[in-house]
Amino acid sequence: MTQPTSFDPHALLADARLGVLATLKSDGRPQLSPVTPFYDRAAGTLRVSMTEGRAKTANLRRDPRAALEVTSADGRSWATAEGTATLTGPGTDPDGPEVDALVEYYRAAAGEHPDWAEYRAAMVADRRVLMTLQVEKVYGEKLG
After folding, report:
1. Nearest to residue 129, comparing CAs of 96, 97, 92, 88?
2. Quick one: which of 22, 43, 64, 131 is 20 to 30 A from 31 by CA?
3. Measured between alpha carbons, how far is 47 from 4 in angstroms, rounded to an integer?
């Protein structure tokens, strides 16, 4: 008889590079957005780069509560992180602290960029914002 394997939703969050971020619209209904998350289990944070002026950014500025769900490639496991978000940016200076935060996020999530000056300029031009979700609860399940 085989022992059931334990499921760790934190591990699924850490491995995921695609998720769905839920924020709250002004009428209380959820706004769902596909995002590229980076989960730092040790720090208890989940970070996402987003653009100023989008619905999710406006929603988080009004109400910082959010949740992010990820699923395994086969769709048989899922994990959700809930928490309170803070937003950094957008920055107007490619060498300013707002863009530095986006560089740190990129390095943690993807490693070194081939052209940091280009990346920094793009973050300012695109009006990028870094969301940091202080994770308060993680849960999930492996089906079958």
Report:
1. 88
2. 43
3. 32
The C-alpha atoms of residue 47 and residue 21 are separated, in whole angstroms, by 11
The residue among 127, 71, 130, 67 whose CA lies nearest residue 101 is 130
pLDDT of residue 110: 86
| Span 115-125, pLDDT tens digits | 999 999 999 99
For residue 1, pLDDT over 50 is answered with no
Q: Report the alpha-carbon distance of residue 47 to residue 109 in Å, rounded.
A: 9
Grade residue 82 by pLDDT with cuts at 50, 70 and 90.
very high
Which burial class, exposed, middle or buried, applies to 73 when counting CB atoms under 10 A from its CB (0-12, 13-18, 19+)?
exposed
Cβ atoms of 46 and 136 closer than 8 Å? no
* Single pTM value for the model: 0.89
Contacts of 22 (CB under 8 A, 6+ apart): 30, 31, 32, 66, 67, 68, 69
- The set of residues, in sequence order, having a beta carbon less than 8 Å from that of 31 and lying 6+ positions away, is 22, 23, 24, 25, 55, 56, 59
Calpha distance 125→30 (Å, rounded) = 29
